[in-house]
Amino acid sequence: MSEYIQNVQKSIQSLRNHGKYDEMIEACYELLQFATNLENPKLQMEAYANFALGFYKIGDIKDAFSYIEKHAMLCETYGDQEDEMDSNHIFFLLFEYTGNLAKAKQVLENSITLAAKLEKHDIVSENCSELSTVLSRMGNYEEALIVGRKGASVAAQHEPYCPFLLVKAILAVAQAQLGKSDLEAVDSLLQTVIRDRVLQDYAKEKTKCYWLLAHLQRLQENPKEALVSLAIALESAQDANNFKQQKEIQEVQIELYRELKDFEKGFEVQQQHIQLLKEIHRQDSENTAMKLEMNVKLQELERQANTDFLTKVLSRRALEETADLWLGQAAVSEENIVCIAFDIDNLKTINDTYGHPFGDQIIRRIAQECNDLLRRSDITGRVGGDEFVSMLRGISIEDGRKKAQQMLDAVSQLSIEYAGEKIPLTLSIGVAENKHGSIEEYNKLYHNADIALYRAKNNGKNQLCIV
Hints:
This protein is an alpha+beta fold. It contains 19 helices and 7 strands.
């Protein structure tokens, strides 16, 4: 099983590297299925992070935010600092895409502090470069220059040497210098990057380099040279499948040809621009259809994750999450909530005598019988092999006791046979309340009900106790 999961993980990475984001999203669904079945929060976080990145890449920012928020929620409980850095990275991409530069800046600053603490110098350098770019877009060129130079300094000292980090940092510094109108410094930096063969391996950085060079040449009043640089930038953007960047480049090309009064060439680029817009629309349509199909699958997977496979009541996780939400709301509204914890008496003896399949049949029957006695607004979840918890909102402790008594009576009256022999069944039940909002966490309320349940066990079973 673990080898299969590793192959899925490798497939996700490969599809991501080759820009096949629709197939990547499908592979993420497969990984999430494994994570859900294994109840593995680390795998779930990995799936959610890749879902977020995949949806970001196809331009579905709403779903991307949704999945990275799910990742962040799991990260709070199960994640480590590296998981937090993954979360920050994708949040940065999303905030940058939506133009929320203040949020992007905040996330990057947090990431730099965290990466420095973990001595992840490559991440420090890359995040400094990204932060420098964000600061330039905000018009804070002096601060952008300082941060960009820090990124370059860390990259230069990094071992083993990573030319990509240095190229990224130099481009960030060049963008800041361009904002400060230090055209001579910009020209020198960009020529240094262009001479570095490593630039050919990174389409995104190559696009940025020639995009900046084109802006420099426009400021130097060299529109023809700017058009040459834009053509190279456009080709690199096409290699990276970056439609947004292609659109921006073509718009500047059209503007320059208009300035040069080269209407024939301008018309040609305009036709290419129209084709690009059609391609963007086609991609959007395909992505919408794919997203609808994926959402159906994910809703079914979420339903499976929230349902106990044997009894069809809520899973333990779904019960705890819902109960915590209710109790948090009740702390404000002072609503009374009753917790009923119950388990089946002598189930081990039944399993040992008649076998586990028969024991499972009893568990299913009792879970359904007790759940059917509740209101639609109440919930029941399986918290252990034969232990269950029901949560009842807006009910007094006395009415909760009456409901528990109904469960006790209903189970004792069940008629379940094995080879013609009637099997007697009873419950032990513990009942507790949140005292009109005084108990705000599920674990504390469940603990009280569980103490009452064991008191019922110790008192001879087939009874209920209240705390």
